[in-house]
Every structure is written in structure tokens, then in C-alpha cells.
Design a protein that fits this description.
This protein is an alpha+beta fold and 431 residues long. The protein is 14% helix and 25% strand. It is built from 6 helices and 23 strands. The protein is globular. One of its GO terms (molecular function) is ATP binding.
């Protein structure tokens, strides 16, 4: 069989005595034979469908999107396909998968730690890898995204398939094969604008039983299409907004809280004064029809979810740790953390002031530490301690939330500490 399987036109034709080297990082480079540090070309600067640790993805907010990765045309045809993957810098930075010029999938904005809106990314960031963005920008205004495995012996790769699905793979030292970690989009509702504008998409339902529905106050634009399963027309308002018009008492515009929604695409980022909120800004702008939770008061990010600065009615400043729907954790983990923090007596630990488990809201309320690194307190102190609790549960075969020693009125932590001091720690092991 004859033919060209791979070639590049980005190399100067007059180069002599050059060698091609495949580096341990996976970077294929063309260098001088006499001076291997002189590079004429490298694959990391000309990627195809795979994003490896050490690669740099350029982003320039003043320019159009950077479609950095293009997959094969089909499973057996390596020519460029119709999909592409990159970062859109217009507005907030987002990861986008395009099909031609049409968006197929997007993340939510970069929050300085992760790209939000991606299921499981909270858990994998720092556990499997960490993402970095260069700062300050270079003279041309470019910044670069890179990532690196948390465990340097792990092999990681992101790859966009020929059918437009982004997959992440991991291969550990002793493993013979790559393991699929995540894929996006993984559910129907993750597809871009699946149910049209002003609509809700529910993956727990099928299309015949209400997967797509209009939000309150809206109705389908085209009823016939909607009833026949074509939701591309989306929804429209039943009653026009009265913004900028004479207000009637029962016609005042308001906002409805929608949970589990992605932030609007192509939204505007505004700066807030100390005393104003996103709602204040939106109310006085008739072109603003919705707003999302501001990142202004965001203090940090952990496996449980984001942490925000807040204030009680009596003006006491607090830190609110809110469970993220993408964290993979739930009520049991929240209860465990309450137990851990309540038992953790240390001069550097923060005080737990309260918690909330109403409906789908799960939050922990801590005292605010104005001159310290709150995420250091909440994620290093408590997470290290939580690891110890998990080890105790594994060794003893008991859950901290259900164990109680009736003889001494001790919970699992106190009981383990007593056995340690009595030099009887071996008796804690599950027979």
C-alpha cells in the first residue's frame, strides 16, 4: 500500500543534518543533529486531536476563538474532520466543541481553578491533574493554559474523537492499557442548546415525557414542532417585560431562581461596586434578562464545592461552603465533615457556625478568616483530617456517623484515640 500518512509543511526546506526525536513527554521534535537544543519544529506547537501534559493552549481575549485541536474525519481516516476543540475567549473563557461553525458543547467559565459546568472536574482537579494559566500575558496579550498530572508517574491525555466527543484517559505506572476517566458530552442535556432558548432539559426523563420544558412564564415558539419532538425553536415569553415602561402594581418585573443551570453563553462580565449586586446591575439595564452568581466573593474551591464570602443579618462575615452538583458527594459526606470539624480542636482551625440541608441545598457555614488563607484552612487542615477518618473507617469497618461506644460514650474518633493511648490500637481492626 502506498500513500502519505503524515506530513508537515511548516518546516524550512533548506535545513540540513536534522534529526527527528520523540521525547519522553510525547513531543515529536525536529532538531539540529549537532545541537539537539535547536528546535526547528515540534508537534506540541502543531497539535491534532490530543492534548498532552506540557502542551500550551494559546488564548487571547482580543482575538477570535482558538480551535486548537481537530480530530480525524472518521475512525479510519486521519484527514481533518468536521469537529474542533478549543477555548473561546469572548466574554468569560470557556472550553468549546464546534461542529463546523456550530457549537456542539461548551463548559462553563474558567473560575481561576477549573472550568465550571463539567461533571466530576471538581474531583479530578488536584486528584489527577492541576490546570495552570500563564500570568502576566505576553507582549501580544496571549496567555497559555497547560496542565500536569498530580502524580508525575501517571500518563494522561485528553482526546477529541472523530464524532466530537472529548475523552480523558489515564494510564498508571503498572497498567498495560489506558483507562477512560471522563467523556463530554456524556448526557443528552449536555449538548449545546438541546431544548432551545429559555428552556429546561432534564436527563432523568425521556423526550416523550418532558425532557424538554419551557421555564415558568414562557411557552414554545412553535407548538407543532415542539409536540413533534423538535425543540430547536425554543420558548418565548408569555408576557413582555415592562422594563422602561409605566409600571402597574401587579406587573413589576422580577427574577426567578433556576438551579442546576449553565450560565448564559455570550454573557457580559461586569465589575461591581462594593455595595451592589448582580441583581442591582441587571435591574437598571433593560437589555439584561438574567444574571448568574457572582464570582466576586468566591474564596476558594475544593472537592466538596466552592466557598463564598457572605454576611449574616447582624453583619458578621462568614464563609459558606456549598456542595456542588458536580462534586459527586452528598449528605453523608456533609455529615462526616460536620463531625470532623466539630471534633477538630486546633488553634488554626476555623469554627463551624452552622449548616443547611434544606431541599437540594447543602451548605456549611464557617467563621470568616480575613487575614488568612481560608481554602488552606478548609481544604488542607480538614481534608487531611478527613483522610484520617476515612482510614479509621476502613480499618475498623465502621462508619463515623453510625459508630457509638455505649460503655464510654465515645464516638469512633474518641474511641480510636483511647485505644491508641492504651496501646490497644490493634483491637480497632475489623476482624
Amino acid at each position: 500500500m502506498t500513500g502519505t500518512w503524515w506530513s508537515s509543511t511548516n518546516v524550512h526546506h533548506k535545513l540540513n543534518k536534522t534529526v527527528a526525536l520523540l521525547l519522553e513527554t510525547g513531543d515529536l521534535v525536529l532538531s539540529s543533529d549537532s545541537n539537539r537544543s535547536t528546535l526547528y519544529w515540534e508537534s506540541f506547537n502543531n497539535p491534532t486531536d490530543t492534548f498532552l501534559p506540557g502542551m500550551r493552549v494559546r488564548v487571547n481575549p482580543s482575538r477570535v476563538e482558538n480551535r486548537a485541536f481537530i480530530p480525524w474525519k472518521s475512525e479510519n481516516d486521519p484527514s481533518p474532520g468536521r469537529y474542533s476543540l478549543g477555548i473561546d475567549p469572548i466574554g468569560a473563557l470557556e472550553i468549546v466543541i464546534w461542529e463546523g461553525d456550530t457549537r456542539k458543547w461548551r463548559s462553563e467559565p474558567w473560575d481561576s481553578v477549573i472550568f465550571t459546568g463539567i461533571p466530576d472536574m471538581f474531583r479530578f482537579t488536584n486528584h489527577l491533574y492541576h490546570i495552570n494559566i500563564s500570568s502576566p500575558p505576553d507582549p501580544d496579550g496571549n496567555v497559555y493554559f497547560t496542565y500536569a498530572p498530580t502524580n508525575s508517574s501517571d500518563l494522561l491525555r485528553f482526546q477529541i474523537r472523530f464524532d466530537g466527543v472529548l475523552e480523558q484517559f489515564r494510564r498508571t505506572t503498572n497498567a498495560k492499557n489506558w483507562t477512560l476517566v471522563t467523556s463530554n458530552p456524556s448526557m443528552e442535556c449536555e449538548n449545546y442548546n438541546r431544548c432551545g432558548n429559555y428552556s429546561l432539559c432534564d436527563d432523568s426523563k425521556d423526550f416523550s415525557s418532558g425532557k424538554c420544558s419551557c421555564i415558568d412564564g414562557f411557552k414554545p415558539v412553535y407548538w407543532n414542532q415542539w409536540n413533534n419532538g423538535d425543540f430547536s425553536g425554543g420558548c418565548k415569553r408569555m408576557v413582555p417585560l415592562s422594563c422602561g415602561q409605566s409600571l402597574v402594581a401587579d406587573r413589576e418585573d422580577g427574577f426567578k431562581v433556576l438551579r442546576g443551570m449553565k450560565e448564559p453563553d455570550f454573557g457580559s462580565i461586569v465589575s461591581l461596586n462594593n455595595s451592589e449586586t448582580c441583581k442591582d446591575v441587571c435591574v437598571r439595564d433593560c437589555s439584561c434578562t438574567a444574571f448568574a452568581l457572582t464570582l466576586k466573593n468566591k474564596l476558594g474551591q475544593g472537592g466538596f464545592g466552592p466557598v463564598y464570602k457572605g454576611k449574616l443579618q447582624e453583619s458578621q462575615e462568614i464563609a459558606v461552603k456549598r456542595l456542588s452538583c458536580a462534586s459527586g458527594q452528598g449528605l453523608e459526606e456533609l455529615v462526616d465533615e460536620v463531625v470532623v470539624i466539630s471534633k477538630l480542636q486546633h488553634r488554626n482551625s476555623v469554627r463551624l457556625l452552622g449548616c443547611c440541608i434544606e431541599r437540594e441545598e447543602m451548605m456549611l457555614v464557617y467563621e470568616f478568616m480575613p487575614k488568612k488563607s481560608l481554602d488552606g484552612y478548609l481544604f488542607e487542615k480538614s481534608d487531611v483530617f478527613s483522610l484520617g477518618v476515612i482510614l479509621l473507617e476502613i480499618v475498623s469497618g465502621r462508619k463515623i456517623s453510625s459508630f457509638y461506644n455505649d460503655d464510654k460514650n465515645l464516638n469512633l474518633l474518641d474511641y480510636a484515640w483511647k485505644l491508641w493511648n492504651d496501646r490497644q490500637a490493634i483491637t480497632l481492626a475489623d476482624p
